[in-house]
Amino acid sequence: MKPFIPAILATSILAGCSQQAEQPTERSMQAVEPKIEYIKTRQSDQVDSYFDVQVPDPYRWLEDDRSEETAQWVKAQNEVTFGYLEQIPYRDEIKQRITKLWNYERVGAPFKEGDYTYFFKNDGLQNQSVLYRTDSQGHTDVFLDPNQFSADGTTSLAGLSFSKDGSKLAYSISEGGSDWRKVILIDTETKAQLEAPLVDIKFSGIAWYGNEGFYYSSYDKPDGSELSAKTDQHKLYYHKLGQAQTEDSVVFGGTDAEKHRYVGAYVTEDDRYLVVEAAVSTSGNKLYIRDLNKPDGELVTVLDHTDSDTSVLESLGDELLLVTNLNAPNKKVVKVSAAKPGVENWQDFIAETDNVLTITTGAGYLYAEYMVDAISKVIQYDYQGKQVRTVELPGVGSVGGFSAKQDDKVVYFTFGNYTMPNTIFAFTPQTGTSEVYYRPQVAFDSDAYESKQVFYHSKDGTKVPMIITFKKGTKLDGTNPTQLYGYGGFNASMTPGFSSAWAGWLDLGGVVAVANLRGGGEYGKAWHKAGTQMQKQNVFDDFIAAAEYLIDNKYTDSSHLMVRGGSNGGLLVGAVMTQRPDLMKVAIPQVGVMDMLRYHTFTAGAGWAYDYGTAEDSKAMFEYLKGYSPVHNVKAGVQYPATLVTTGDHDDRVVPAHSFKFAAELQAKQSGANPTLIRIETNAGHGAGTPTAKQIELYADMYAFALYNMGIRKL
């Protein structure tokens, strides 16, 4: 969940698998099933009362991530899970195939800071990408290597920000996948550390003001577990170089009147304005600015409510450009005087259209990316609001980038889709021409695969898009191993993009389908809201309808369908598999929000209430949440699909107790032979910064588990 605001061989080894799994073919012949001896999870007599309704919570004790009993439970569950996975005969072969696909050089777009040009590069299987730099003479060397941060690669680079002249760098690190960060300051010329690291920083950018200091955000360290205890009051600080962190001044958020769950800040490129955004949930923010040319300048209110997502796009001296969805659900750009920035003074600069807008700036222009049925279209504007051109893109897919400093001459963007690895293009805005800057060499024959966008109707008749990717010539006989992926929340859009992991599934002869569910941002704020709170069932209905489309159109059948999703998508999988256990053969909910009655009591979970509502809001909201909460809807005597729950023991975004309790419920109540296992990655968090080696192992395990339970006995 967002704090503020997811070489293939030409031969498809599963292609042509048209027989039913129970038929005695070579690939699906009967074999000795891996034996599972589940541990017995202790049940307590914990009962909670919601509006006089008694709700048992027998596995509440698993929420205590500091207890020895929980630690032993984790260890025992992993022994069972890995004992099962190790008996799948082709598990190592799948790992080798994914490793081959993952092992290609990846280079990021260059960016200039001070006298150097920097870029990230990963040789292929490095756990973390390395930051290089090139001097004015063309000499390139390693500047910062996160692979040296820890022996096992679990300490990652979580963010970096250069001072105005590029002479200093503040970079943050995440240890074991935690959202709690350390910030380290160095001199970029000598790489020498300038002072003691700043600690206990969470959900924060680093916003330099000149070369003297920077703004950052954090919470007071909570009482109890720092992984799961609630964090509720975010504060914005200013750190002046050379002073102790304990002396950092609170800029915003230190009083009851300024209490917000999320506070972020940035400084406009001209160093003129400090911009502060404050929010109580993951949607909607208040907005303030401070003129930094005035030594004692006060924060000026731009918006004093959270009815919109509004930010400062650009400073034009005494005027500002804002991007907003206030009374414009697909977003627009407005211009306003910084001295009188209230809504009543806003003037449309780039009007709202029928498609969702994302906008960036660089090299003296603005770049408006529009999503047209989840596909990118880019229009270039000048600073008078005049359309310059529609940027020619290399195909149908998704773009990223189009962001640069105003004095840059070239703007870089990435383009990719489900079959085309992300390629970097250099765009010259004066002429509108693009050329390939970097094209990765991947052992994957893009021409052998195709993507097809389809539209299907959900339960209430709503038309929903989905992109289905498969090898050309795939026979639609209803037996193709198919992975259906979804998210459906927090205004996040699932747009086409290349993934070595998904390429690995395609290489195994599988079909990949990604549905653009309500709750996402593909069609603007209305689409998002249609999947929130007491309309959340729309998201599950959309996903169910996607599965039914794939089955009805013979891409697969229920015995060859895997559903997968992470975080809010883990909730999606958990809800759908408990509502329609007959629909899929395999379910893989990853780092999911599974206890909808208690999610808001952990870490920053209360900030997700815009999407979910809470059990404390009203009896109706409580009953609605309880009606789909995965933990509360596992029923004895039901045959659930083969399930592999995945989480990380250091996940302090969606705490692992969600997954622990869901797995315990499934193991206690599952009817039939389908396995219900939980894979708990140790020294790992919600996903960001996970080492390459661990990612490959996870996907190999998920795919092996899925194929084996679809009846595939031989690759």
UniProtKB/TrEMBL annotation:
Domain of life where this protein originates: Bacteria
Coiled-coil stretches: none
EC supergroup of this enzyme: hydrolase
Peptidase S9 prolyl oligopeptidase catalytic domain mapped to chain residues: 504-711
Family: Belongs to the peptidase S9A family.
Protein name from the UniProt record: prolyl oligopeptidase
PROSITE patterns in the record: PRO_ENDOPEP_SER (PS00708), PROKAR_LIPOPROTEIN (PS51257)
Lineage, uppermost ranks: Bacteria, Pseudomonadati, Pseudomonadota, Gammaproteobacteria, Alteromonadales
Any Pfam family: Peptidase_S9
EC number assigned by the record: 3.4.21.26
Catalytic activity: Hydrolysis of Pro-|-Xaa >> Ala-|-Xaa in oligopeptides
